[in-house]
Amino acid sequence: MLLERFKTLWGHTGSADQAAALARQAGFDGLEAPLPTQPALREALEKALDQHHLQWIQEICTAGSYVPRRDASVQEHLADFRAQLEAGRAVGARFANVMGGCDAWPLEQSVRFFTEAQDIALSVGVTASFETHRGRSFFTPWNTAAVLERIPELPVTCDFSHWAVVCERLPDSEWDCVERVAEQALHLHGRVGYDQGPQVPHPGAPEYAAALASHQRCWEAVWASQRRRGLTGTTLTPEFGPDGYLHTLPFTNAPVADLWALNRWIGDHEYDHFQHWQAAQKAAGQVA
């Protein structure tokens, strides 16, 4: 399999062209970002992707931002999803990463949303991969597994860092759910959470070695499933971000690390991890 890496625009304060240049310099294969609503910014994104020969993963949040509007109906979520997906198709998204549904919904509402959203994605002709994310229907391992039992063809983006903070334990502790979700995983978000937060200060710090190892074990479960399913490639977006995720010093609010440096680190580290993992699989006779 081939691992392709994407640069998130979450926390990027420069232009789309600057982001694309950074991604290309780092050896990344594309950008992951929402489609800008302003025509000039949309044109700038398209131009940057074209000039730097990068792919694009569209980010979609239904009925709100990362946390949905609590009073939004299933139908409002679906209408928002369709509108954004159709707009992204016009620009040429490789696929859409979707933060969809609501954590407060009962199971049947979530099942309805994902069933109809999958139908919409098929009709639009763009693959939609639904993220394990706080505030959304896939906010816990158990809720996610329960929905997937009902919709066994739904693609999933695995961001296990959200489960770490929701469950107050490292994600590989819920191994049965990790393996179940891995069976439908399309995309990975490479952020390392810990039992009291969605983002460690630095994934290379020795005090967070156990957290990194836990997430790597989960990522390996995804790769192994993808290999068994015959996928020839996999994608990963390093997604360390701002907005309370990035640790800061009291009183000054100074960040403890540079955001792009964190994402470069995890991107490079996981690229090497993937190559070593794949070589070990081949040596063990599990890869042709």
Give a written overview of the molecule.
It is a single chain. With 288 residues, the chain is of the alpha/beta class. The protein contains nine helices and eight strands. The protein has helices at 16-25, 39-51, 74-91, 107-124, 141-150, 160-167, 175-182, 209-228, 259-283; strands spanning 2-8, 30-33, 55-61, 95-99, 128-131, 156-158, 185-190, 233-238. It has an eight-stranded parallel β-barrel, surrounded by five helices. Helix 4 (107-124) links the parallel strand 4 (95-99) and strand 5 (128-131). The protein is globular and about 45 Å long.
pLDDT < 50 stretches:
none
Class from helix and strand fractions? alpha/beta
Would you count the extended β strands for me? 8
Share in helix: 40-55%
Outline the biggest β-sheet. 8 strands, parallel, barrel
User: Which of globular, elongated, flat, extended, rod-shaped describes the shape?
Assistant: globular
What is the H-and-E element order?
EHEHEHEHEHEHHEHEH
Q: Average pLDDT, to the nearest integer? A: 97
C-alpha termini separation: 11 Å
Strand content: 5-15%
User: How many H/I helices?
Assistant: 9
**How many whole angstroms does the radius of gyration measure?**
18 Å
Order of strands in the sheet with most strands = 1-2-3-4-5-6-7-8
